[in-house]
């Protein structure tokens, strides 16, 4: 399988990102205290390793990756995505850190997933090889779904604010945009 130069460079950058993510996840698993967060990271860990291995295969084998990346379903656990009954827990950076607490682990993991997701989406848009493009799209969805799960855990624990948009805000935006009649699509 041939890769364009930009595709090889993008896969290289994404593989380095995976090295970082997997290394951090190994550290997280040694320090996490909350069983629910631990279970989540343990479930995600093998998928991140497979993601990394697929990149390594694309970069080193002429035929490309031999496996596909399974995309997990989104697991919705919050009863409402616009309201949270949990009090927000204030935070400030710690400057003398010997180990991470669960909030710091979840924050680091969430931010890693968000950044990886943006990189996957951007790389997919710049990729001409259909097989690599599909892999990058799946990797984006995996990062997105994992980030959603971490975000929900953070909301449940008061580490991430979640509140409904005010009726005034919704009314303002609702008046701003008018719907357009959709044309009939011509199928070819």
UniProtKB/TrEMBL annotation:
* Parts of the chain that traverse the membrane: none
User: What's the superkingdom here?
Assistant: Bacteria
Coiled-coil regions listed: none
Where found?
Spore coat
Q: Which keywords does UniProt give here? A: Capsid protein, Sporulation, Virion
Instruction: Just give the chief location class.
Output: other
Listed Pfam families: Coat_F (PF07875)
Q: Name one GO biological process term.
A: sporulation resulting in formation of a cellular spore
Family (UniProt): Belongs to the CotF family.
Q: What protein does this entry describe?
A: Spore coat protein
């Amino acid at each position: 399988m041939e890769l364009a130069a930009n595709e090889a460079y993008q896969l290289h950058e994404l593989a380095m990102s995976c090295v970082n993510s997997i290394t951090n996840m190994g550290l997280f698993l040694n320090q996490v205290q909350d069983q629910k967060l631990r279970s989540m990271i343990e479930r995600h860990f093998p998928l991140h390793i497979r993601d990394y291995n697929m990149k390594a295969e694309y970069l080193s084998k002429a035929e490309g990756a031999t496996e596909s990346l399974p995309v997990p379903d989104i697991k919705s656990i919050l009863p409402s995505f616009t309201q949270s009954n949990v009090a927000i827990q204030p935070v400030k950076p710690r400057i003398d850190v010997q180990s991470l607490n669960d909030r710091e682990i979840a924050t680091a993991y969430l931010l890693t997933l968000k950044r990886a997701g943006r990189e996957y989406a951007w790389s997919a848009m710049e990729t001409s090889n259909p097989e690599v493009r599909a892999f990058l799209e799946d990797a984006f969805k995996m990062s997105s779904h994992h980030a959603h799960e971490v975000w929900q855990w953070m909301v449940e624990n008061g580490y991430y604010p979640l509140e409904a948009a005010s009726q005034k805000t919704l009314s303002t935006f609702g008046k701003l945009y008018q719907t357009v009649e959709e044309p009939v699509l011509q199928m070819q």
